């Protein structure tokens, strides 16, 4: 029994053959090494021989550490490490210059163990740090100008840096279930979504035909507002010729 328990703590050993058999081709033709849900407790060094894959999935294991050698996966565009027991990230992760998707949710990451080198991921578009132990977000993440989606839900955040909320291409920011002192801190989620269909320009930037069209539409709205009767006025039906009409209120005119 004790022997079995020890074996369980060591986790499953991944061989190079197992890893090769775990490579899948995605619908868009990329090579994904899928080692999710394998009971892995330590990073399998053998997969460094497969560093030409485009995607690496090590999610839902029991990993506590990722080695600095992760930087050898130079072609990597997609890295999923969610639902492990990671407490820190290696500095080498910043060398994955082609990385566009990084999922680190449901781990044990703290703010002090997020390496500054994360700001080197210039092509990163999606970053998921939800369900961790973050009490603040490094302002250096504001250097990731290509970010479109950022998830920070279920942490211990009390504020979100402006450098993050003002990222130029950001479309989705999830900061739900954080202990913000001011509930309005969660407003950036909605305001960013609204900007997907809201475009504001100055009149000087419009051509003559577009400017005239906008002005005509504005005039129509103004006319419509002016024609809507006030609720305080009584309705008037001048063409209604029945005794029950409002004309009954003025007997002399009715006769």
Automatic annotation (TrEMBL):
Q: What's in the keyword line of the UniProt record?
A: Leucine-rich repeat, Repeat
Source domain of life: Eukaryota
Q: Where is the composition biased (Polar residues)?
A: 225-248
The Disease resistance R13L4/SHOC-2-like LRR domain covers 70-198
Of the GO CC terms on this record, one is:
cytoplasm
Task: Give yes or no: UniProt keyword Repeat.
Answer: yes
- Repeat as UniProt keyword: yes
Stretch list, region Disordered: 225-255
> Which PANTHER family does this UniProt record tie to the protein?
LEUCINE-RICH REPEAT-CONTAINING PROTEIN 18-LIKE, PTHR48051
Q: What is this protein called?
A: LRC18 protein
Species in which this protein is naturally found: Nothocercus julius
From the broadest rank down, the organism's phylogenetic lineage runs: Eukaryota, Metazoa, Chordata, Craniata, Vertebrata
The gene is Lrrc18
């Amino acid at each position: 029994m004790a022997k079995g328990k020890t074996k369980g703590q060591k986790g499953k050993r991944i061989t190079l053959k197992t890893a090769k058999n775990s490579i899948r081709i995605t619908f868009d033709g990329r090579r994904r090494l899928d080692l999710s849900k394998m009971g892995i407790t330590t990073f399998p060094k053998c997969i460094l021989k497969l560093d030409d894959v485009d995607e690496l999935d090590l999610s839902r294991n029991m990993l506590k550490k990722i080695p600095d050698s992760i930087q050898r996966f130079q072609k990597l565009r997609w890295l999923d490490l969610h639902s492990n027991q990671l407490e820190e990230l290696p500095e080498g992760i910043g060398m994955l210059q082609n990385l566009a998707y990084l999922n680190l949710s449901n781990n044990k990451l703290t703010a002090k163990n997020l390496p500054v080198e994360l700001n080197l991921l210039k092509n990163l578009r999606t970053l998921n740090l939800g369900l961790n132990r973050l009490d603040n977000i490094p302002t250096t993440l504001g250097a990731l100008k290509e970010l479109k989606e950022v998830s920070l839900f279920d942490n211990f955040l009390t504020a979100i840096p402006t450098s993050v909320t003002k990222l130029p291409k950001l479309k989705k920011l999830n900061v739900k279930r954080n202990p913000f002192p001011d509930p309005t801190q969660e407003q950036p989620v909605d305001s960013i979504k609204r900007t997907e269909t809201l475009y504001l320009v100055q009149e000087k930037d419009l051509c003559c035909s577009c400017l005239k069209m906008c002005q005509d539409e504005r005039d129509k709205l103004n006319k419509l507002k002016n024609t809507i009767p006030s609720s305080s006025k009584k309705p008037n039906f001048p063409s209604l010729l029945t005794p029950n009409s409002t004309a009954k209120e003025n007997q002399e005119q009715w006769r």
